[in-house]
Amino acid sequence: MTDPVRKRIRQLIGDKGLDMKGLSLALSKNHAYLQQYLERGIPKELNERTRMLLAEQLGVDEAELGGPQGQRPGKAVAGAQEQIPEIDVHAGAGGGGFTALESHSANGMTFSREVVRDHWRLPDWLLYSLNARSGNLAAFPVQGDSMSPTLLDGDVVFVDTRIRQPSPPGLFVLADEFGGVIVKRLEVSSGPGDEDIMVRVGSDNPHHMTKELRLDEISIVGRYVGR
């Protein structure tokens, strides 16, 4: 039985007179990517970012390419999800305030209205470069110098709240013991067979100490994706 998604993509490419090689390059893939996908089944499915870009190039709703209903090409879900909440807490060394988490799921976190002080809207090209959707992001202001020179006091950082495991290593926003949030560099330091998963919690500023904690001692809000 023919895969209906592949069949629809073939039809759209033919109807619009597009070239598979050029279309593959527009997706930031090698020139044979779409030919392999359509004719050899490699990859088996399009990842989310590639599907978004392909829907934009073909001028169709993502649902036609196997995505969720209502995703117009290059657009986030209409309404509140287009807006990224800026949380009224400080991210950085000695950050104060309180995070008021309303709920969390595989799709990210929801914060109480009381702590949302403003909203951001990012252009589509920037969301593509971050490989993120507005509805999964939250913004936090940085306070302090623990991540200097990478992040400076006053920077606003964007965080993907779906990603709450420190693999691969990178920058993450954490809830601290004082009820605020901090930005730290996380890397799993234990081995595959170790009983406890240990995480190295570091700062980019050499004047701040590095800690090693168990994963269950760390409350990860999300992964830093940009500023």
Notes on the structure:
By secondary structure, the protein is of the alpha+beta class. Strand 2 and strand 3 (108-111) form a beta hairpin. The radius of gyration is 21 Å and the shape is elongated. The longest helix has 13 residues, at 4-16. The strands form three sheets. It has a seven-stranded antiparallel sheet, with no helix packed on it. A two-stranded antiparallel sheet has the order 1-4. A two-stranded antiparallel ribbon has the order 2-3. The chain is built from five helices and eleven strands; from the N terminus they run H-H-H-H-E-E-E-E-H-E-E-E-E-E-E-E. It folds into two domains: 4-65, Orthogonal Bundle (434 Repressor (Amino-terminal Domain)); 84-226, Umud Fragment, subunit A. Mean pLDDT is 79; it is low at 71-81 and 90-100. It has helices at residues 4-16, 20-26, 33-40, 48-58, 124-130; strands at 84-87, 101-105, 108-111, 116-120, 137-141, 156-160, 170-175, 181-188, 198-202, 211-214, 219-226.
How many beta-strand runs?
11
Shape: elongated
Fraction of residues in helix: 10-25%
Number of helices: 5
The whole-number mean of residue pLDDT values reads 79
SS strand fraction = 25-35%
Structural class: alpha+beta
